[in-house]
Amino acid sequence: MSTQGLERQTRNYLSNNVPQIQQHGGNFEIREVDEEAGQVTVAIGGACSGCGIAPMTMKAIEHRLPESVDGVSEVKVVRAGGPRAAVMPSKIDEMDEMEEYEDYDPPF
């Protein structure tokens, strides 16, 4: 499988199984694909950068993407920063550490 194939599969998975990202004003970007290692890095941004459930969404993607896409063994999800970020980084760090996110099981 080519890197483009793995990237395309990842994009299809995110578009089809995590529609909340786009429906809620967020976006995702596949930042890096290492076909040989089976590693994919996905950035979520827009409204996701300040969303209270973004850490739960990130964990779900990290867990479920390898189960759903052939050739993926490791997924890293990061928040996009810069002008597309919707909230200050200090608030994002606080949200990532909230205990409420530990057992969340989103519907996708």
Order of helices and strands: HHEEHEH
Distance from N terminus to C terminus (CA atoms, Å) equals 26 Å
- CATH homologous superfamily name? Fe-S cluster assembly (FSCA)
What Rg is obtained from the alpha carbons, in whole angstroms? 14 Å
**CATH fold-level topology:** GMP Synthetase, Chain A, domain 3
Rounded mean pLDDT score: 78
Q: Quick one: biggest sheet?
A: 3 strands, mixed
> Per CATH, which architecture?
2-Layer Sandwich
Summarize the structure.
The chain is α+β, with helices and mostly antiparallel strands. Helices cover 39% and strands 21% of the residues.
Report on the structure:
The protein has one domain: GMP Synthetase, Chain A, domain 3 (2-Layer Sandwich). It has helices at 3-17, 20-23, 54-68, 89-96; strands at 26-34, 39-46, 74-79. The protein has a three-stranded mixed sheet with strand order 1-2-3. The protein has 108 residues and is an alpha+beta fold.
Please name the defining characteristics of this protein:
108 residues; NIF system FeS cluster assembly NifU C-terminal domain-containing protein; iron-sulfur cluster binding; iron ion binding; single chain; 3-stranded mixed sheet; alpha+beta
